Amino acid sequence: MKNKKIVLGIFILILFSFLIPFLNINYSLISETQDNLSEDREIRKAATKTVILRPNGDILTEWDGSPTPHWSRINEVNYDYVNVKWIDGDENQTESYAMENLDIINFINVTSIELHAIGHRAYSGPAFVSIYLGDWTSKLELNLPTSSYDWRTCVWNNLNGTYEDLMDLQVNISAGVWCDSGGYGYIDTLYCNITYDIVELPGDTATLRPNEDILIEWDGSPTPHWSRINEISPDGVYAKWIDGDENQSDIFGMQGAYFENALVKSIELHAYGFRSYSGPAFVSIYLGDWTSKLILNLPTAVMGDWRTCVWNNLNGSYEDLMDLQVNISAGVWCDSGGYGWIDTLYCVITIEKVIPQVISPENITYTEPMNGYYPATYGFENDKVGDNPFGWETNEDGGSVEVIDLLDNHVNIVKLDDNTGGVNDCVLTQNFSSQIEGTIEFYFRLDSLGTLGRAIRLEDISNQRAIHLKVMNNIFYYRDGSNNWYAFYSNFQNDTWYHVRIDFNCATDTFDIFINEDQQGVNLQFNNPVTYIESILFITGGEAIVEMDLDAIGYSWDSNYKIGDNLKEGILLSFRTYINLNWLGYSLDDQNNITIYGNTTILVGDGAHTIQVFGNDSRGNVYFSDMVYFYIDLNIPVITIVSPSSDDFAGYDAPDYEINVVELNLNTTWYNLNNGINVRIESFTGSINQTVWDGYGEGTITIKFCANDTWCREGYSEVSIFKDLTPPTSIIAYTPYDTPNIVIKSTNFAITATDGSGSGVTMIQYKINDSSWMSYSDPFDLTGYSQGYYLISYRAIDNVGNVEIENTIVVKLEDPPEIPPEVPIPLIITVSTISGGAIISAVIIYTLRRKKRKA
């Protein structure tokens, strides 16, 4: 079952990652409609979406008449009788909706507001809820029902509210001015649906036409006419002009063409008319204050015909398009008495999104990081090759400081090329916010070691040197508080990248330094005590010709950088923008935006990801790229062996196994024994193949579990166990009552067993004659058995199931002889004493008892 769940999970993950690029989900929209485009994609204005939103917070409207202060939950549609009560005489309560967190992009205008409320009033006069939009004098009012709770709804249509109006949206809950004496009312929940329009181009490009006619009139026309620019079919109603008329101009009606996130890319001008003279008669379009223009000459001496011209390769802004002008002229070379007519003209304007376009990451799976890109506060990925690095000050008196594209597996680095050989240096400097303590890390490289120092300094704002480092010959030095130089690293090589990390503390005026992650100095003394460190300088050193290279400079106080990130290569986020943006940021996996200066390198863990770039221009317009979906699989499969464990034993039966495999794109899993044949497995739990297991004799066997991903990258884990085929041995011990094997009922039998270097004895068994096997734990005897011969069998079993060959002994059970009764036997002992020459004798009689042996 566990295996099935894992396989199902992998299948769902793969299916989801495949479908993601085809999904377009916007959780903030309740409903939306979009204008349909005609088949030729010609539209009057950029496509408009109608969006319904609700405010995002409660209204804190309270009355003294309420038992406890309550508020109206404007963002709920279900009431629960938590009422706000007001009584006759209470003042109206007013508060603004909580609208400040609305993320409205490309806002056009508020078009309608629906107000919904549930409550009631207990008097005949009106009790209403009203909404004011901005400083408008009109308002939306909703009257509550009388004497019973019920919903009431009203709609305020045909609005033209601005974004600022929406931010000032206010609600007013009132008892009314005609309230009966002693009247009161309740309101529980109110909410509103606010409908507004936003602009969204239907695709990367779209075409539009102006939406109003041009009022071009001439005295020579029988009646005033205008050119119907939004029609494409002439109807023979011509506007006429004659020689001597001034040029006629008007602004195209573009007010409805909202597309602040687009550029004008081309304009096509179409006109229907003719002229009756040889001199030119033309229609021209000026875009904004551009000096260039689009000119279309009308045909000669025919009763109407179409003429078309196209203005390509434009890069017009929204403001330029609002100033689009048309000019109809007889020209300056008009024949005397000439005249012309024009019936219909129209233009087709192509606009293109100016959203940032993400170049990388692409919509692919990355199985390795991008070579040469290291995450950093300053990685120089966005700097143009040949330029000075953005955000840094440079001194190029001694040569040049510029960004180069590639050097020894580092892309876009800064090179300080001190090529004069004089006393002048090349210096790269950056000032930053005051830091009492922190960490700076970077990559550092020299093309020659020389005899003069190449310096790195950390200073305060007054250029007081706190930390002063230099490389001379192949030795890295620091300068202490007495201006003495001390070596802390003596193996610096030229043309080699070094990762340098400096941990500083201005409270103690000390620092630690690491070279390639190895600590080379602890609590080293500042050159000068400072309160803060506020700048870093890289200096080539005078009187030498040297190149110093730098990359991936990271600061611990950069909230978007984690110390140690630049030790790993990452994924390059690169993108293209078409207008100047005051702010740039990106969002990874719909998380909060992270501010960036431009292209940057990021670290991303394994799995499915999305990324999107955002920006603001000087007018506050928001621009954002399309969502890019990509997949990261940088890690080889990781296998954890749950069982068997190291130093486990197995016997003739193949052991069971359980493994865990961490791999998002798992392809195949298998194992082998002692690097023998591979056995493919479909489940993470099971048993080693018995036939394969039988091919190995007793001894240590290494089981290697392997897995690869869809890119054939392998991972493995192995465990060694002992195959134990030798059973344990056991012996039985007892003390015979008599020879040869005569025992009595109380004779104890004790069995012991040993398994040598095997898996260990798990059980000892014995049986008497044909009884069942019994588990042995303590010595036993034959109490309860009658006299006679008995076969005692015994054996031992080890922990892997090896069973000892059965051992046997035969004993004869006899009852012991009875103890004879005690029979008195008199014993006479004579004791004599000589006294005064006379012998005195006494007789002492002892009784001895002896056992009578039973026959």
Could you walk me through the main structural features you see in this protein, from its secondary elements to its overall organization?
Strand 59 and strand 60 form a beta hairpin. This protein starts with a helix and ends in a 5-residue tail after the last strand. The strands form 13 sheets. A 7-stranded antiparallel sheet has the order 23-26-35-28-29-30-31, with no helix packed on it. It has a 7-stranded antiparallel sheet with strand order 24-25-36-27-32-33-34, with no helix packed on it. The protein has 4 helices and 60 strands. About 30% of the residues are buried. The radius of gyration is 49 Å and the shape is extended. By secondary structure, the chain is mainly beta. The N terminus and C terminus are likely disordered.
Comma- or semicolon-separated keywords:
extended; disordered N terminus; seven-stranded antiparallel β-sheet; mainly beta
Total number of β-strand segments?
A: 60
Instruction: Report the uncertain regions.
Output: 1-48, 175-179, 219-226, 330-335, 828-855
Beta-strand content: over 45%
- The residue fraction in helices comes out at under 10%
| Widest β-sheet, arrangement of strands | 23-26-35-28-29-30-31
Shape: extended
C-alpha-based Rg, rounded? 49 Å
What does the average pLDDT come to? 77
Spatial separation of the terminal alpha carbons: 77 Å
Largest sheet: 7 strands, antiparallel
Q: Structural class, please?
A: mainly beta
User: Number of helical segments?
Assistant: 4
